């Protein structure tokens, strides 16, 4: 698959029979972008959703999803549609688990190097980057510009971090009910967020050391976010994480839910969803991962440990993880009572019955 980031010392093996991007998701293919300087005007126009085009790359702006509460997705096998030459194709969890099977050569390679059989998917928010502080700073700056105050109590702080901007402005802060004012506040809030993003230079503590260990053993990784691809690439470059991610799922991929982004990442990594592990800090993301038949590792921080009990593994920091932890997640994976199972039909011929003859 075409990936913007691929290590020079390791290239994932290409299976002989697989569901390539040309047959499954042409929409997911992306070309390598040329590095360009960051200009504040572009950040403002992209965040606000205006139709202004940058003269440097001619890329039109799109509305930001940073302060929108996204749906979880993939409930009861729900998938998303992609288009091929012969018509639309619905891609869901079962379809990908069936089509992204390992070929014979891949099975041999993974038998010798079992860690390469996994795919790791990192959520951008509070797992790769501390976006919690970016959002809080954007709200405080907006309040300062408007001459308003934001309460420091835990309920308000939690609401502005995990609730859609519309509801925060109308129900929590009670700033306005008028549609024009709401749009103006949301537009300015997104502008402030993207401006603060330009100053982000350090990843979450312990992440780089963890990615170094993963990179050494050759496990493919992806990062998913609702940010646009250009700003994702630039932020990863500033944090020194560019070489670690073989795939990126961004706003341009057009995914409508959290689970759809995870499935898109699995396709780009060429790994079955059931062989992927998601690193999340939000209970909604953990639910989306399980809906996709993926394992989930929770990072305690933005949410307390008791809200992350549904995760397969919860850690306080990346320093607590080791590669052996990933193997143990799948060590006891098997069928349980009441799980849906395919009926196995016996195709072998019936055995001959032994007959005893009595000789008189």
From TrEMBL:
It holds the Pfam family HAD_2. Signal peptide: none annotated. This is 5-amino-6-(5-phospho-D-ribitylamino)uracil phosphatase, chloroplastic isoform X2. It comes from Phoenix dactylifera (Date palm).
């Amino acid at each position: 698959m075409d990936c913007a980031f691929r290590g020079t010392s390791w290239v994932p093996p290409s299976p002989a029979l697989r569901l390539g991007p040309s047959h499954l998701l042409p929409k997911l293919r992306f070309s390598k972008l040329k590095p360009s300087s960051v200009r504040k005007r572009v950040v403002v126009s992209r965040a606000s959703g205006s139709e202004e085009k940058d003269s440097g790359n001619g890329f039109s702006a799109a509305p930001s999803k940073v302060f929108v509460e996204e749906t979880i997705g993939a409930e009861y096998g729900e998938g998303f549609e992609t288009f091929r030459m012969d018509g639309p194709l619905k891609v869901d969890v079962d379809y990908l688990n069936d089509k992204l099977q390992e070929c014979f050569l891949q099975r041999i390679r993974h038998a010798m190097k079992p860690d390469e059989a996994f795919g790791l998917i990192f959520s951008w928010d509070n797992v790769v980057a501390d976006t919690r502080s970016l959002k809080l700073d954007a709200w405080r700056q907006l309040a300062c510009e408007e001459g308003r105050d934001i309460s420091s109590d835990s309920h308000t702080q939690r609401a502005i971090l995990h609730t859609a901007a519309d509801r925060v402005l109308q129900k929590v802060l009670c700033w306005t009910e008028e549609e024009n004012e709401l749009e103006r506040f949301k537009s300015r809030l997104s502008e402030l967020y993207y401006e603060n993003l330009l100053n982000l230079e350090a990843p979450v503590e312990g992440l780089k050391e963890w990615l170094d260990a993963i990179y050494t053993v050759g496990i493919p990784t992806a990062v998913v976010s609702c940010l646009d691809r250009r700003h994702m690439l630039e932020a990863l470059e500033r944090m020194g994480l560019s070489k670690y991610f073989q795939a990126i799922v961004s706003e341009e991929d057009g995914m409508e839910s959290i689970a759809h982004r995870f499935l898109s990442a699995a396709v780009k990594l060429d790994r079955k969803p059931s062989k992927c592990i998601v690193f999340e800090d939000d209970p909604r993301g953990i639910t989306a991962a399980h809906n996709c038949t993926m394992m989930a590792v929770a990072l305690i921080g933005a949410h307390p440990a008791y809200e992350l009990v549904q995760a397969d593994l919860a850690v306080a920091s990346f320093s607590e993880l080791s590669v052996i932890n990933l193997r143990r997640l799948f060590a006891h994976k098997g069928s349980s009572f009441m799980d849906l199972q395919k009926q196995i039909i016996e195709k072998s011929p019936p055995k001959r019955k032994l007959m005893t003859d009595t000789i008189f």
